[in-house]
Amino acid sequence: MGSLNVISHPLIExxxxxxxxxxxxxxDFRLLLKEISILMGYEITxxxxxxxxxxxxxxxxxxxxxxxxxxxxxxPILRAxxxxxxxxxxxxxxxxxxxxxxxxxxxxxxPTEYYYKMPEGFEKSEVxxxxxxxxxxxxxxxxxSSLKKRGCTNIRLVNLVAVxxxxxxxxxAHPDVDIYVAAVDDGLNEDAxxxxxxxxxxxxxxxxx
Length: 209
Ligand SMILES: O=P(O)(O)OC[C@H]1O[C@H](OP(=O)(O)OP(=O)(O)O)[C@H](O)[C@@H]1O
Ligand SMILES: O=c1cc[nH]c(=O)[nH]1
Ligand SMILES: [Mg+2]
What we know:
Number of domains: 1
Radius of gyration: 18 Å
Helix content: 25-40%
Keywords: Allosteric enzyme, Glycosyltransferase, GTP-binding, Magnesium, Nucleotide-binding, Transferase
Binding site for uracil: 194, 199-201
CATH class: Alpha Beta
Structural class: alpha/beta
Catalytic activity: UMP + diphosphate = 5-phospho-alpha-D-ribose 1-diphosphate + uracil
CATH architecture: 3-Layer(aba) Sandwich
Family: Belongs to the UPRTase family.
Largest sheet: 9 strands, mixed
Number of helices: 6
Strand content: 25-35%
Order of helices and strands: EHHEEEHEEEEEHEHEEEH
Bound molecules: 1-O-pyrophosphono-5-O-phosphono-alpha-D-ribofuranose, uracil, magnesium ion
Domain Phosphoribosyltransferase: 6-208
Number of strands: 13
Mean pLDDT: 96
Oligomer: single chain
């Protein structure tokens, strides 16, 4: 079973509280999401491998760790996942970015894929799927299935707010995937929105509705 990592930190908690506030503007919401993505990125990248390289300090030549050259692909689930890309790219400017467009049907809550574009060779890379919300889990499960169908074997999932239902759905469909979240909320309402949650992440990021 993949691990469930709840990244708790006072800075993340305080910023997430501001994102939950319905009076927070789109501008602030976007900035807070970027800042949290950077803070979460610190934990997500904790197991990155390093190798020793020779460096000449002003005093002498010695060996020090540098990041092992690896191929990473950040995959936002459109639209809302886009809000987490810039923060992660600040930590991993060498990463590539692929996109999967998914939208949930308002009545059935079942997602439909409307866009898919990956960088060349991505299937051999470490893939980081990002989406602020893990609600029923349908979108994350489909996005990961879509990537696996194309040959991806090394996938982790990063969400801002999740609920137990969504976590269970991903763990059942993709037991090999490690999940990183900033918070686990109570559950879903009748419209499959996270409670207490923060509303529709895509709408709040882009100011739609
Ligand atoms: O776990 P689930 O029940 O699948 O719900 C989560 C999905 O719902 C939202 O996307 P939405 O369909 O609203 O699209 P948007 O990002 O374009 O707003 C959110 O960004 C996730 O992708
Ligand atoms: O609470 C939720 C659930 C799904 N998608 C969102 O953006 N918010
Ligand atoms: Mg939405």
